[in-house]
Amino acid sequence: MWTEKYRPTSLDEMVGNDEGRAKLLLWLKRWKPGAKAVLLVGPPGTGKTTTVHLASEKLGLHMVELNASDSRTKEKLSKKMGEAIASTSLFGGTSLIFLDEVDGLAGRADYGAIDFIRDAVKRSQSPVVMAANDPDSAEVRKLGSATTKIEFRKPEVSDVEKRLDEIARKEHSSAGKEEIVAIARAANGDLRAAINFLQSGIPASKDEEVTAAEAVNAFFNAHDEKSALRALRSYPGQPREKLRDIFTAVSRSRVHEERKAGALDVLSRADVLMGRMMKGKDWRLLRYMDSMLAVELWKSLGDGGPRYTLDAVPWPLQIRIWNDSKKLKEIAGLTGRRVGISQRGFLVEDMPYLLRLCADREFREELLKSLDLEENYDVFLAKESARATRRQP
Q1: Where does 155-206 sit in CATH, by number?
Q2: Separation CA 245–CA 307 (nearest Å)
Q3: Residue 37 and residue 20: Cα distance in Å, rounded?
Q4: Which segments in the chain show pLDDT lower than 50?
Q5: What pLDDT does residue 195 have?
Q6: In CATH, what class is 17-151?
Q7: Type and span of the H or E element at 187
Q8: How far apart are CA 288 and CA 3, in angstroms?
Q9: Domain boundaries, the chain
Q10: What CA–CA distance (Å, rounded) separates 310 from 55?
Q11: What's the distance, CA 325 to chain centroid?
Q12: What is the pLDDT of residue 74?
């Protein structure tokens, strides 16, 4: 794939975030034992991990790389980081400790992990660099006093255009200037997505952003695989929301049961792929999900049969969200962040179950404590729980 073929081999080849890369290099050159760690914060695909790899190569450092979501407890982190932290001959030298996806630490299973990291930074004989996608996560906030934060942002459209033009010339692509500009704009700062658009030859749409329902219905009404893939990529929400909305449309459709069973089998495999991506924070897997759905699901149901409508949202929760949604949205945002899904996804998919659980006073108290919410939310949750219970069979 072109994304792998044209992966940067030096910091100078990277697109965007010049200031962030310069700050990291300067910090590494000036680092001394006892200094704070660096925390790179920014959306997936902005080059955080690549920057750390290339910076370590440039300075001749051996990188010890760990993924926080795979080493979620104090014991696991201590075992994997212990030797690198304790060594006295690493920096000046040879080593850099990189802890990726620190916002993947959440819940009871991570007890003590944050405290261990903060202590390890103080004791480390080699520089510690961390990365996170969500700057507002509780884990990032808890690490604040032990880190120096460097923000990574999506590259400018003009920078993406320039890189696409270079690749198009090297690959003798037939894409013209207007098409390259359209691709750069449609990718919205995601260089990997832009390169995939360019390689696939799928024209990028410059139309206004569509709604979730319009994107899903355009997928089922597509006249060919390319149109189906383009519809999927126009979906405005998160990947998990996209999968959920497509599942809702399929499960409620009146197509023949055999066809529906085949479609649900495709969706189940896509869900497994989504689970692996969420668990390992391996966002590269996203590129395969849309292709799987466009090729396999569209072929089995791409005749306009299924249709997604807003009334698929469970029970009359829509009315509650619209009328007095401030507290519900706040709870959904805080809770969804803990489990790695969007506020909207949690409201639609998980809030009904959370409210039923809130019928138990001890559960409500534990929830309020974990989310650091004020006591007046207890009355609100008790009231909403009673309403949810009355409406459910």
Answers
A1: 1.10.8
A2: 10
A3: 15
A4: 88-92, 107-109, 205-208, 310-324, 391-393
A5: 82
A6: alpha beta
A7: helix 177-187
A8: 13
A9: 17-151, 155-206, 208-308, 313-388
A10: 47
A11: 25
A12: 61
pTM of the complete model beyond 0.90: no
What is the C-alpha separation between 41 and 280, in angstroms, rounded? 18
Whole-number Å distance between alpha carbons of 385 and 357: 8
> Do 36 and 121 meet the contact criterion of CB atoms below 8 Å apart?
yes
Do the strands 37-41 and 62-67 form a parallel or antiparallel pair, or are they unpaired?
A: unpaired
Distance, CA of 133 to CA of 309 (rounded, Å): 31
pLDDT at 368: 87
Residues ≥6 apart with Cβ < 8 Å to 258: none
Listed residue (107, 67, 80) closest to 335, CA to CA: 107
Percent helix, strand and coil across the chain, each to the nearest 5: 60, 5, 30
pLDDT of residue 55: 92
Q: What is the pLDDT of residues 90-124, one digit of tens each?
A: 444 568 888 887 776 654 445 567 777 888 888 88
Q: Which residues does 255 contact at the CB level (< 8 Å), separation at least 6?
A: 263, 301, 305, 306
Instruction: Identify whether the C-beta of residue 117 lies closer than 8 Å to the C-beta of residue 77.
Output: yes
